[in-house]
Amino acid sequence: xxxxxxxxxxxxxxxxxxxxxxxxxxxxxxxxxxxxxxxxxxxxxxxxxxxxxxxxxxxxxxxxxxxxxxxxxxxxxxxxxxxxxxxxxxxxxxxxxxxxxxxxxxxxxxxxxxxxxxxxxxxxxxxxxxxxxxxxxxxxxxxxxxxxxxxxxxxxxxxxxxxxxxxxxxxxxxxxxxxxxxxxxxxxxxxxxxxxxxxxxxxxxxxxxxxxxxxxxxxxxxxxxxxxxxxxxxxxxxxxxxxxxxxxxxxxxxxxxxxxxxxxxxxxxxxxxxxxxxxxxxxxxxxxxxxxxxxxxxxxxxxxxxxxxxxxxxxxxxxxxxxxxxxxxxxxxxxxxxxxxxxxxxxxxxxxxxxxxxxx
Amino acid sequence: xxxxxxxxxxxxxxxxxxxxxxxxxxxxxxxxxxxxxxxxxxxxxxxxxxxxxxxxxxxxxxxxxxxxxxxxxxxxxxxxxxxxxxxxxxxxxxxxxxxxxxxxxxxxxxxxxxxxxxxxxxxxxxxxxxxxxxxxxxxxxxxxxxxxxxxxxxxxxxxxxxxxxxxxxxxxxxxxxxxxxxxxxxxxxxxxxxxxxxxxxxxxxxxxxxxxxxxxxxxxxxxxxxxxxxxxxxxxxxxxxxxxxxxxxxxxxxxxxxxxxxxxxxxxxxxxxxxxxxxxxxxxxxxxxxxxxxxxxxxxxxxxxxxxxxxxxxxxxxxxxxxxxxxxxxxxxxxxxxxxxxxxxxxxxxxxxxxxxxxxxxxxxxxxxxxxxxxxxxxxxxxxxxxxxxxxxxxxxxxxxxxxxxxxxxxxxxxxxxxxxxxxxxxxxxxxxxxxxxxxxxxxxxxxxxxxxxxxxxxxxxxxxxxxxxxxxxxxxxxxxxxxxx
Lengths: 360, 486
Known about the structure:
- The structure holds two protein chains of two kinds.
- Chain A is α/β, with parallel strands linked by helices.
- Chain A is built from 14 helices and ten strands.
């Protein structure tokens, strides 16, 4: 090979590279990766590069009352504080994406959705809010702690410091309460160029999905179910997140007993200040639909079977049982997302209505 | 415009290349040169056109003075020495106004209690590079070491886009003859292939390696209140590698882009982290700056010709000024002073005839450089002391629960642990990459050596195609964490 050939081959390679990226982007990946603040793309479709199962939806709300995010909160009296993961942060998107808004509307509650304090985990955040006297001062009656099923053991078995403490002023300073800054996403999403590794992954994953239900390397599993439980065609295709499976091993009797003991202890501490703990493990999408999956090679998740039998001194929301009664309504979870839809959020809020007295 | 941007790679560079050689093929050499100057000014103005008059004015001023200084006979009433002084002072005033006025005012305010308002001037892009390049030109003109070139050649010497933004700091002696050489007007596939090869390596170093380390360095320096032992070391080492791969990568891109136009830029890095003493380090790190500091500050101050104490003084003065050149802040000055002190100690060590095991010598040199970079990177003293305090274990040691189980015998020394490793963005991978970084900078060939041995074959074609694909994707990586929108 001479220098001229080398240079021309490289040039040809570069032109081909740009052309392929341009074509794949415009024909496929743009629909899952393009940044559009109005429309939501399901996370499972996005990380699995699946473009034929998109549940198109727009963020919107039609409820009479909304909860407070940290930026909106200005020291109002609170009935409830919620703390949790993406489910508490409305990550599913679409209509009424926050379950807190349903509770706020149905119960006439002031609800603050709080994030972790400093680098504390969820439990220690609740404890620091409790021990500092912040919860009492804010008039909180209920602390709703939410966690996705797959992370419960990780979050509630380690690093819990029941005596952790700080001052209310430190807490107010950290969260910047009362500054009345407009709610905004903390992460600014850059505009995506048409040249990106998503195009490569789109080709690769869609090739490999022909040979494996998780394309060997994808975090999204694509399987088939025997009932039409989604409104998106093809109705029998079912997506779920890989960690719904890999976390199953952690859900042992002993681990879940530790979780329950910690929650009982937390609840006792909260009760000392007349605050009730509500624990809401959100059923994983895989576990929720597992009985309908045609391929039976996947393990069963024993989480709820074990957990619901344990003795508790807090309010336990058995999301699996509650939502299972409504599964026929379709789209309890979005087809393209690991998060539940507004239908599930509404069902949970309705369930709570029967447990908690509304604020007059 | 940055080298690592799509607009540069897919629009500006190819367009400039093709038009330049098209004009040359039509024998329109002056036009092609003019086009290259225009393109370079366009490249400069892409950032902010407001400073275009500054660079144009600076070039016109220095060219006029330089031409007067280089004339063999002086018919002017002003002596050459006065003319040189005026030229140098005006250049220093210009850079002083834009780069150092706020630094000067804030120090004046704090020492005198005055409340003079800061000017908050945006620093014109590349002002340090083009000002010093032109001061060197004036000094050489005064010494009679320059030839008379026309303004177009001079403008190209100053603005030539591959070296305009971040060097290498070029010398008119090595550039002007190349611009004037008629043989360089025809495209050379050898230079094109080699240029693309070096450019691709530089792009990879900058985008993939440096920008990854940058995330970790920023997390430690800018986004944390305190750092534990491993976090602090990860922070400082990440910055040490970020700086090297960023700057040397950018230089590789400059060398590669210039080679497309048949212009050879001087090398700027020669595996600096392989250095076994601090003098060796400065012979390998930012070579063209070291050359400038030596030729235009250290030697004019007397160099080592006026006795050992004067030599130490000259070294200190040169490095303190070198620190100030890098940035208007006491941390930069302190960084320069640290290097000056290290060089003085090194000279004393040599004078006493001491020797040291080479591995120990490398270890001390590398760690000194690493620690000194902490001051270079820190925005204020507090940032530097935060990192250094963490590096000596002032905030204890934190590891992940998983690691703690494996290191049970160290439990007494480990003051804290957490679900994931570290409280910043550090995972165990940060430390693995720091170890890989040490291996790469000490054991592997640098890009200059790799490029010297470059042969056009399928292996190299596959190599640069692969790194270019990887880099292009990395420039626009799709994030895949599950909760992307939050």
